[in-house]
Each structure stands twice: as structure tokens, then as C-alpha cells.
Amino acid sequence: MNVNDWVQIGLYFGLLIGLTPLLGGYLARVFQGERTLLSPVLAPVEALVYRLGGTAPDEEMSWQRYFRAVLVFNVLGIVSLMALQMTQGHLPLNPQQFPNVPWVLALNTAVSFITNTNWQAYAGESTMSYFTQMTGLAVHNFLSAASGIGVLLAVTRGLKRAAAKTLGNFWVDITRCTLYVMLPLSVVLALALASQGVVQNFKAYLPAALVEPQTTQVQKMDDKGNPVNGPDGKPVMVDQTVDTQSIPEGPAASQIAIKHLGTNGGGFFGQNSAHPFENPTPLTNFLEMLGMVLIPAGLVYMFGCMVGDKRHAWCLFAVMLVLLLGEFGVAMWAESQPNPVTANVVPQMEGKEQRFGVMNSVLFACATTGTSCGAVNAMHDSFQPLAGLMPLWNLMLGCIVFGGVGAGLYGILMHVLIVVFIAGLMVGRTPEYLGKKIQAWEAAWAVVAILVPNSLILLGSAWACSSTAGLAGLGNAGPHGLSEIFYGYASAANNNGSAFAGLSPNSNFYNLTLGAAMFLGRFGVIFAVLAIAGSMAAKKTVPASAGTFPVNGPTFAVVLLGIIIIVGALTFFPALCLGPIVEHGLMVLGRTF
Amino acid sequence: MSTKFAVSYSTLARQAVVDSFKKLNPRDQVKNLVMLVVYAGAIITTVFLFLPHQFTSFNLQICLWLWFTSLFANFAEAMAEGRGKAHANALRSMRTNSQARKLVNGQEVSVPGSEIKTGELFVCETGNTIPADGEIVEGIATVDESAITGESAPVVRESGGDRSAVTGGTRVLSDRIVVRVTAEAGNSFLDRMIGMIEGARRQKTPNEIALNILLVSLTALFILVVVTLPAFAKYNEAAAGQSGVVLTSVPVLLALIVCLIPTTIGGLLSAIGIAGIDRLMRRNVLATSGRAVEAAGDVDVLLLDKTGTITIGNRMATEFVPANGVAINDLADAAQLASLADETPEGRSIAVLAKEKYGLRGREMAEPHASFVPFTAQTRMSGIDFGDGAGGVTRRIRKGAAESIRVHVEQAGGTFPQNVADAVDTIARSGGTPLVVTDNQNVLGVIHLKDIVKGGIKERFAQLRKMGVRTVMITGDNALTAAAIAAEAGVDDFIAQAKPEDKLARIRAEQSGGRLIAMIGDGTNDAPALAQADVGVAMNTGTQAAREAGNMVDLDSNPTKLIEVVEIGKQLLMTRGALTTFSIANDVSKYFAILPAMFGMLYAVTAAGHGPLDKLNIMRLHSPESAILSAVVFNALIIVALIPLALKGVKYQPLGAAVILRRNMFVYGLGGIIIPFICIKLIDLLLVAVHLAP
User: Fold this and answer.
1) Which of A1, A503, B278, B475 would bridge with A5, disulfide CB 3.0–4.6 Å?
2) What is the 3-state secondary structure (H, E, C) of A233-272?
3) Segment B563-586, tens digit of pLDDT
């Protein structure tokens, strides 16, 4: 790394730490219904939304009702988004005249965007009309983020309230979240991105003549469009000359801003943030990396404000930061190691954009998988095996390094409950968290919240790597192929959405199994989290004393960090051994597949 | 508990060995799902042995060690249960079948003790065994209660008041009492004790249930981890172009499951709970449920009666303050004279102070022409009159409360000196009780009677405060006195001039703030508060109502016991947490033993057939078989090794939560990661040395 790299790293983490309390304080004011700078403009809009929606903003919901609201709202979203994709051929703003999306892909995509996963088994510029992108995908970038934050708010209220039956109003939470947080920030970021050259228009794609026409070999097709095989069973290859290129356009900037701020990650273009129109300059790259972590980190501070323990919030923040820095450090180290397979060239630019270089690719990868964003500016499967392990590890931990908006924090809170439960007994009291006793109900659902994504990863991967349909999607043989499968299910089950690259996921097998993983990983966890929130709200708050398990000191932070790593490692170490770890061992020996 | 119920460890262990085999009954095994997995694993590996070509030394050893793991957990539980069982049996043998002398219309009728009914009256005299629980309605007696308390010193029981309850099975040593039956046979205190000792351990406590859910979930997770592993391994085997190099045979996978699931805490969990109740029992406290013991650890506030708990019970004279112009020896002399006939502890303490501090010998009561004036509620004074020998009184020495003495002196034409009035104020403000002494109309000075705070109690409270437990003193004294004693004893708060309903109100107030309250009580009017408190310890000397209202009974009737109860509760929870942490931390090393054993041959690159994953064998264990066996053996033996810790509990230190957490995390968390690495390596060396593994 050079000085430039160090300066960027310093700036990135400095801004992250500095902006966290600012944004967090603002979020706390917004969600506690206090007046903010934007209130004069937005309060009337907010009131209008409630009137149009027929919502009584003061009406509180029990945890069951809150969950029903989340589920119904999102299932309706899936249905409408599927319908939109499957009819886009007949709808306006489709200059490339893309056909209707087939139902399996439409289902996968709908589930993916509604669950804040934004796993993409398609490439935007060759599949989705502008209308679908704008009114479907972009809208759900906002709403899925707001749903996640809503659930977090319900949990926060559950911890804060005592002897209460309700957790707030879902409709109010998503409205305020969208109006006061997501929209203003997105407008600012979209303008900043557009100023750097991110496209924002409704034009048809531009054809451009290549200066140097390229010739490649492709499989010969017969008249009916079927591939032709020779008598030996091998494909018959013919030369194909490419002399024009079509340059995609579209309303990208507006969608890319929320893609990052809402930790969605679904790219406007197939290459995501590696595409020059989606991420043109080092500045946009920096803004996109910052955009991913900003709100998740701010939510941590907001949580501290709302439950009245900012030191606890900083402990959580510190644990997340240490995890991120650790992963980033390991990945950078791995990237700087000579690789005999590529003639020991360092830096290794395979799979990385020239614009960004190694450091920015690795930091982007760690940030996008730690949050459940899933945008990518480099191909993770081209990283060194141990560097690629870090994003995968981030996913397996449940995307809790600042995490998806809302989801990351409520995810780490489930780990906190486990920590409090295991270690809390050691101070000689039955476990309690922020004054709430952790009993059978909470323990059970916290474990469910952690078990659901983990089982989806293990079961899904086991199925994929032992079935023909699963193996058919692999882009690489050997342990690397297994990593691709692990990554796919880890990304889906934890609603990240980034891909390891290499895997071809647009098959019925992957569209359906990954779709199921995304749905169960999202709503299974949300159900468990809300069940805990509801039960917490109903409990009395035990005042803290010198005998209370301390959740706001360095000891707690260290224990939390240790337990997250150990529980994660105990679950996935055997699998990782057979993926990236053995691959690393083989790479050092110069063996490839 | 006295040595009477003590059972030697070897006797316990012998019985426990037998019981651990009896507990292999599936009906017992399904109660503990974590250990059920081990049990199932043992059965499956046993069946597996009989499949073709599977009867190998390795498979046999895995199978045996899985059975041992199961047996060791049973043994731990049986050890914990043993002491209680022995105690219950001892109590059972004490249930008498003696005759009861029933009173019917004033006539005694002899009936079998078991046939006497609630509400009926019976008589007991010297030497009789009391046939049933009851309240004394008439008489006073000394009773030998050693049968239940183990305490051989007899206790006094009398009608009325808070010491009226007698227990069936105890023996009257002197005098005669008439008792009304409050509980008939089958429902007696002895039966309840037996029930408590045996029953308290049967139901799981809320925290145990929650912890169990966590352990079962972890078990499910690890089963999933292991069950999916062959798919990933087979994939790699195919990619490597190898076959049969990954060890995924059924015994190996079961060994891995058993090593990973939290068998250490799973096997010891019930033993820890039983041992906690047992530790209370050894301190002569019976808990009606494990829940109460657990709640004791969570207690935030202790309600303590001043008398007997914080102070030694009686006020003592500590100082004489003379009036202006009076020699202190004159005051001491008069005070001693005034207290000669005063047999109350306060009176005696005045005589003792005069003797010890001012060298005044105790005088005989036979002073010439002296007559003693006892304390009455009307005069609120006591003292002595000296006559002139002809029936006239020449000298009246009195001691009493300041106000009474002032009236007495002023009636006699004297004045109450200002400096005495000041001294009275000072003493009262310091929490003491001032007694003013007069000789005829002359006020001689003041005796300072003081509540003596028990030695060491202040430090005890400071420790409790560190653990986050607040103490509240309950006293009938006025606020001034109460405040002074509270400050001296270091309690956090006090309720002065407390009425019985004040206790209940305070408990409710604290509970509505989310706090848990413990109290100890004996009287009938304590019963509502005992029932309301989260931990209510009834003294055995107390009334029947109190004993039934509490969720613990202190057979020693020692109010300080409440502090120990809290400590035992905390220790129980700490032990549970420590062993859970240890159990989970252990898994790290097992991966480093078993994974290289299973996958070390994958993608073989060396001549010896080792692949890249062999590097994970950081312990350099000898062979795949020895590595797997070592992990399994360690996993089984660690249960046995930790039985003493589970039974005794982890070391209890009265420190703040942050410090305790740091220490325990260091010992059981970090220790739990490191220790097994060392042990597994040693076991591996041993197994190879004795040729049990290649």
C-alpha cells in the first residue's frame, strides 16, 4: 500500500466515525417523533401520506400485528414486482424493447429486492426496462430498507418500554424512514454521483463502432438456434467478429444512491459498481463505500440514544469496527502475498478495476459484505483465496459489520442476547439485557434468528454441491467451486446479494432455492426478532446495579467479539476448510483446477 | 447440616456408580436432550460394530467412549442426588408411629399418631414425641428438635407469640403442652421437608429451561454442521480425483457430533442445580423449589430486621455521662444500684459496665433496708429505695427515660440540669438510648445504652453492595435512632417505626420497580410479606403461618442466613455460566484435532499422503485415529474432571459484576480454549504409547 491508500483509509474510517453520532442523533430525533430541520417541509407531506393511506399514526401495534404488517406489505410487494417484470414488454419506458421476464427469474428478483438482498440472477442493462428499474426495483430499494429499519425500531422500543403491549406503528416507521432519511440522503448522493458522470436519462442505448474489431470463437448454432456438436460430441466452434458495441443508458444515478444508502446493492448494470457508468471515478467509489456503512453505523448510535445507553452503542460500534478492520487487514495481507499460479505478480489486478486498484477493491468488498449491501466493484472470486474468504466470512457472520439497514443491528443484538445469556450467568445473576430478563422465550428466538440463516447456508450448499442441477451452475472446479456455492447461499440467506462471481445462478434450481433462502432468511429472522421484541416490551425493567452484567465496557466488547467469532467459526470452520482454506493451501503449492 | 446427615464421598460414589447404570433407562435419558444425542450415538455405534468389517479396535473404542460419556453424565447427576436422597431417607425414618394423647372434652384418649386430625388437641409431656405438627395453645416446654435441624440444644416453645409452632417427630424434654394440630400425617412439616429435598430437584428452574433451549439449539446446529459435512467432503474428494481419503464413517461423524455438542454443561447441568439446593441444605436451609434458589442470585434488595440480624439483639450500656458537679463514680455507683435487681440484658449490662470500667464490685441484693422498684409501663422507671429501717424511705435511686425522670425530679422539687438534657439529646441523636439516673431529686447523669452492631456485618453489607445488592433495615426504633444504626452498620436504607404492613408495602414498591426482594421472618404478621417477597426465608422457630408463606425455611432460625442464601444463589448461576462457557470454548480445540484427521489426506501432495489441511493439525497428533479418539476421550473425561466443580460451585467472590466477568471469562473462556489443546495432546501421546491407537 502507498501513501495514497493510507490517506484514503484514514479518511474513510475517520468520516465513518465522525458522521456516526451526527447521523445517529438525527435518526434518533426522527424516530422519536421530535422536530428536525426538515420537519417544516416534510411534516405536511407525512400527514398527507397518512391521510391518503387511511393510517392513524398514533395507533400502536402488538408484535404479532407489526409482523403481519411487515409480511403483508412485503408479500404484496413481491406480487406487484413480479407482475411488473412479467408485463414490462407492454409497459412504457422500454427503449430496448426487453421482453417480459420469465416467472422464475421474476420471482427470484422480486423476492431478492423485497428482502433487501438484491441478489441479481440477471444483468440490468439486458433484462429490465427503465420502467421496471424505476418504478419497481428502485422503489423497493427504499421500501425494503425502511422495512428493516422499522423492525429495528420495534426491537428498540421493546427494549426501552416496560410492561407495554405494543411496539409502535409499522406504517409510521416506514413513512418517516423514507421521507426523513432515505429520500433526502438519496437526493444528495444521486446529485453527487451524477456530477461525476453516473448516467441519468431515458435514452435508448447508443451504438458505438469499435476502433479495433475483436474476433472470438463461439459455438456454432443451427437454424433453430440450437448449439451444434461435432461427431465427437464436442461443440463446433466458429469465428465471430465484433465491431460494434452498444452503450447502455438509463436513470442510473437515482437508483445507485439508494442502492448504497439502503444497503440494497442491486446494480443498475450487471457489472454493478465495477461498471464505469455506475461508479466512474475514485470519488464516486469513495462515496459509494461510505454510503453503504453510513446509515447502519448511524443506527447503532441511534439505538444507544433511544435505549439511553450510548456507551453500549459505542461498544457495539467498536466490535463492528474491529471486525471490519480485521477482515480488511487479513484480506489486504492475502492480496499482497505472491501467488505462484500468477507468476508471483503483486499487486494482483485480476478481477479488479484499474480505476480503483487493490485497496479500494478489498475495502469495498469488506464493506459491502459486512453491511448487507452487496454492491461490488471487483469480482470477489478473483481475490486470493484467503482474501475472498473475508467477504464470505462476513456473510456467514450474518452481515453484522454495521450490517444491512436495521437488519445488521438487530442481527448483532441476537448475538448480544446469546452473549448475555452464556456469559451473563457468570456474574451470578440470571441473564438480563438493558434491564430485561432473558428467559426461555428470548433465548429460543434468539437462537432461531441465528440458526435460520446458518442452516439455510449449510443445507442449501450441501444440496447444491451434491446435485447435478447445483453443480451445473459452477464456473470453476475444485474447492473454488464450493466457495462459489457457499457464497451464493450465504449471500442469499443473509440478504446480502453480492455474488462471488463464477456461479451462474439463472437456473431454476438456483433461482428457486436461493429465492427461498432469501425469503426465509429475511422473514424467519424478522419473526424471531419481533417475537423477542414483543416479549421484552411486556417485561418490567430491572434497574441496573453493580451486580448487573455490564454491557457498556471493554470487557463486554471483547466477550461479544469473541463469541461472534467463535460461534461463527464453530458453525462454518469445517465448511470453510473445504472451500477457501484448502484452496489457499493448494494455491501456495501452485495447484489449480 | 450437622454431621448427623453427613454422608461420606465414597459411600455416595459407590451408590452413584450403580445409579449411573440405572439412569441408562431411556425414560431417564429423554429428559436431557443433549445427552440423549450421546446416548443415541452410543447405541448407533454399537449396532454399527456388528455390521460387516466394522468390528475394528477404533470403532470399538469410539463406541465405548460414547457409552462412558453417557455414564459419566449420569454419574454426575447421581452424585449430586445422593446426598439429598440420604437426607430424605434419614428424615423418613424419623416419622413416628407413636401414640398421641388426644384431648376429647378435656379427657385424654390414646390414639395412633397417624390418625389425629387437623384442629384436634393433644397433650405432650416430658419424654413424649410430638405426634403431629401444631400450634401450642397452652403451656411452655423445652423441645429437642435435633431430628429435623440436627441441632442438639433444646429450644423453648410456648403458647402465643411467634414461637408457638411444634413439629411432628420432635420430642418434648420438659413440661407439658397442649397442642392444636395444624397438619395431619402425610402433610406434615417432616413430609414437606422430604418433599422439598426430593421434589425441589425434579422440576427444572426457569433459567435451566432457557439454558437447556440454548444447549439443544446448539446441539441441533452442530448436528447440522456435521451432517452436511460429508457432502462438502465428497465434492472435494471428487475434485481431487481421490476416493476413500476423507474419514466420514458413521462412528467418526458421531464422534465429531458428540465432541461438538455441549456435553460438558449438558451432562453437568442438573448436577449443578441439585448441588446448589444441597449447599443450602448443608447450611440448614430448605428450599421449596430450585426456582427460589435461582431467584436468590437475582435478589436486588434484602429486607433485614435490625434486631438479631444487624445488631446482636440487646442494647448495652457503653458510657456514663455525669451531670455538672457529679463525680462519674457516684453516677456509676447509683446506676449499678438502680440496676441490681434489673434482670433485663440492658440492666445487667449497666452493672457490668460499672464493675468493669469503674471497679465497682457487684453488690449483693441484701443491702440493708433496700427494696427494689421494678419497671412499670406507668412510671417508665426502675430503681431501688433505701429505707430508714422504720418504713420510711430515705433515698430513692431511679433510672429511666428522660421525660419520666424530668417529671419525677420536678415533682420532688429538683431541676433537670441543662447539660444532662444536652447529653440526652446527643445520645439519642447518635442512635443510642439515654437512661437518666437520679438520686432523690438530684439528677446524677445519663447512661448511654447502645445497640451493638454485629462484628463484620458492615463489611458483609459492603460486599453485597459490590454485588449490586442493597440492604434495607427494618426497625421499630424512631427515625433518629434508626438512622444512626443504619449509618453504623452500613445499610443502604432503613424503615423506622416499621409496622408489619410497612414491610409488605416496601416489597411491593421495590417489585413494581422491577427489583427482586429477599426477606427473612418468623411471626404471623410476617407471613404476607414472606409470601410476597421473591425469596422469603421463614425461620423454623417461627409460626406455622410464616413457615408456609416462605419459599425457604431456615432450620437454624438465624437471620444472617439470608446473606448466605443470596451468595449460594449467585454461586449456582455463576457455576452454570462458567461451565457453559467452558463447554463451548472447548470446541475450538476439537476442530483442530478432528478436522485434520478427517480431511488431512485430501489433495495429498506429500509422499506420506498428507494434503494442505494436514497443516491444521497444530497439535501434531499422531494419526487420524489417535486424534479422533483423543478428542472423544477428553470430551468424556472432562465431565468427570468437572464433577467436583459442579458440586462445589465455582469460587464465589464478592466483587462487582465487571470484575467477576473478567475473571471468569479469563479462567473459563480463555482457559476453556487452551486447556483442551494440552489435554488432547497428552491423551494422544498416552493412547499411542499404550498402543490403543496407531
Assistant:
1) A1
2) CCECEEEEEEEEEEECCCECHHHHHHHHHCCCCCCCCCCH
3) 888 889 999 999 999 999 999 999
Total residue length of chain A: 593
More confident call, B552 vs A11: A11
Decide if B587 and A570 are in contact by the 8 Å CB cutoff: yes
Task: Give the ranges where B111-262 is alpha helix by DSSP (H).
Answer: 146-149, 189-199, 206-240, 250-260
Largest CA distance in chain A: 82
Q: In this structure, are strands B285-287 and B442-453 parallel, antiparallel, or unpaired?
A: unpaired
Nearest Cα of chain A lies from the Cα of B471 at a distance, in angstroms, of: 13
DSSP string covering A387-448, please?
A: HHHHHHHHHHTTSTTTTSTTHHHHHHHHHHHHHHHHHHGGGTS--EETTEE--HHHHHHHHH
Band the pLDDT of B3: cuts 50, 70, 90: very low
Residue B560 pLDDT exceeds 70? yes
Whether the Cβ atoms of residue A564 and residue A90 lie closer than 8 Å to each other: no
Q: Do B658 and A584 touch (CB under 8 A)?
A: no
Give contacts of A586 with chain B, Cβ < 8 Å.
Answer: 603, 612
Given this model, what pLDDT does residue B1 score?
38
The minimum CA-CA distance between B242 and chain A, rounded to whole Å, is 12
Packing angle, helices B250-260 and B57-92, rounded to 10: 40
H or E element that contains B150: none
| Burial B366-403, CB ≥16 within 10 A → b, else e | eeeebeebebeeebebbbbbbeeeeeeeebbbbbbebe
Q: What percent of chain A has pLDDT over 70?
A: 100
A103: its cell numbers: 416467472
pLDDT at B156: 82
- The rounded distance, in Å, linking the Cα atoms of B685 and B691 is 10
Please report the ipTM that was assigned to this predicted complex: 0.92
Task: Decide the pairing of beta strands B121-124 and B177-183.
Answer: antiparallel
To the nearest 10°, report the CA torsion of A421, A425, A429, A435: -20
Contact A419, A563 (CB under 8 A): yes
Strands B517-521 vs B301-305: parallel, antiparallel or unpaired: parallel
The pLDDT tens digits for A250-287 are 999 999 999 999 999 999 999 999 999 999 999 999 99
What beta strand segments (E) does B30-132 contain?
99-104, 107-112, 121-124
Name the average pLDDT for chain A.
92
- Would you say the C-alpha torsion A455, A458, A461, A462 has a positive or negative sign? negative
| Cell numbers linked to B596 | 485434520
- pLDDT value at residue B4: 46
Q: Average pLDDT in the B201-206 region?
A: 75
Q: Which phi-psi region, left, alpha or beta, contains residue A470 (left: φ > 0; alpha: ψ -120 to 50)?
A: alpha
Residues 300-359 of B with CB under 8 A from A: 300
Q: Which residues contact B580 (CB under 8 A, 6 or more apart)?
A: A422, A425, B211, B214, B215, B262, B265
Q: How far apart, in whole angstroms, are the C-alpha atoms of residue B325 and residue A452?
A: 89
pLDDT band at B100 (very low <50, low <70, confident <90, very high): confident
pLDDT of B93 strictly over 80 = no
* Alpha carbon distance B86, B274 (integer Å): 14
| Nearest-angstrom CA–CA distance, A350 and B212 | 49
Q: How many residues are listed for chain B in this entry?
A: 694
Taking one residue from A and the other from B, the number of pairs with CB-CB distance under 8 angstroms is: 231
Q: Are strands B433-439 and B442-453 parallel, antiparallel or unpaired?
A: antiparallel
Mean pLDDT of B420-445: 87
Kind and range of the H or E run holding B308: none
**Are B612 and A569 within 8 A, CB to CB?**
no
The pLDDT score that the predictor gives to residue A165 is: 93
Dihedrals φ, ψ of B642, to 5°?
-95, 0
